[in-house]
Amino acid sequence: MKTNKKTVFLLLAFSPAIVFGHGDETHEEKVKTTKSVVQKSVNTTQSALYEEINKSYLKNIKPIFEKKCFDCHADPENTPWYYTLPGIKQMMNYDMREAKEHMDMRKDFPFISHESPLNDLKSIQKIGMEGGMPPLRYILGHWDSRLTDAEKKEIISWSTRSIKLLKSEKKHK
Ligand code: HEC
């Protein structure tokens, strides 16, 4: 399962579509200039919404994510003592790379991700409701890394509110 995922990822990483998607600037510019005025105003509303969502992220969610998620999804403040143990370091480096590949939280919301901000919010909402992050092997090492009920509630409420905001904006298109 793990190896399959890794192989697929490697294949994707070398496919031109992904390389393109990773920020070929001239391509992006072309797309931008061909966008109509209408599209531009939609984009303005959308970035205003992202800003609004980010504001509540910074206030309510970032402090939780800093404690429980940044070790892998951003730059860790300090690695635990067992990081230096043989094998552990490799495993953790792999997790940190893989995690940021899926969702990089270093620049706040919208997160850097292959998914849309709406889909990212849905994954976060799911984690609040069903768990799944931090990965179990990480919780085993850090007992305090599990999300508390209060934190889960906060995450669910922020992601649900934000999803609603983005969806209501979509309907006006
Ligand atoms: C020990 C490292 C680690 C920590 C800590 C961690 N994650 Fe992750 N996260 C990963 C890895 C590795 C992946 C990619 C592979 C996977 O899904 O297991 C991932 C993937 C994700 C994804 C994408 C899932 C998807 O469906 O693609 C989300 C969303 C996410 N993490 C949110 C969080 C949140 C929120 C926290 C904090 C509560 C957190 N993670 C803490 C390692 C971590």
Key traits:
173 residues, mainly alpha, two-stranded antiparallel ribbon, 9 helices, disordered N terminus, binds heme C, Heme-binding domain-containing protein, electron transfer activity, signal, heme binding
H-E order: HHHHHHEEHHH
Shape: elongated
Helix-strand category: mainly alpha
Number of H/I helices: 9
Strand content: under 5%
N/C terminus separation: 40 Å
In which order are the strands of the major sheet placed?
Answer: 1-2
For the largest beta-sheet, the strand count, sense and barrel status come to: 2 strands, antiparallel
- Small molecules held by this entry: heme C
Poorly predicted residue ranges: 1-27
Tell me the Rg in angstroms.
18 Å
Protein name: Heme-binding domain-containing protein
Domain Haem-binding: 32-161
Pfam family, one: Haem_bd
Signal peptide: 1-21
Could you characterize what this model shows?
Residues 1-27 have low confidence and may be disordered. The protein has 173 residues and is an all-alpha fold. It has helices at 2-14, 16-21, 25-34, 37-68, 70-73, 88-102, 117-130, 136-141, 149-171; strands at 103-104, 112-113. The chain is built from 9 helices and 2 strands; from the N terminus they run ααααααββααα. A hairpin with a 7-residue loop joins strand 1 (103-104) and strand 2 (112-113). The protein is 71% helix and 2% strand. It is elongated, with a radius of gyration of 18 Å. Heme C (HEC) binds at residues 65, 68-69, 71-73, 95, 98-99, 102-103, 123-124, 127, 133-135, 138, 147.
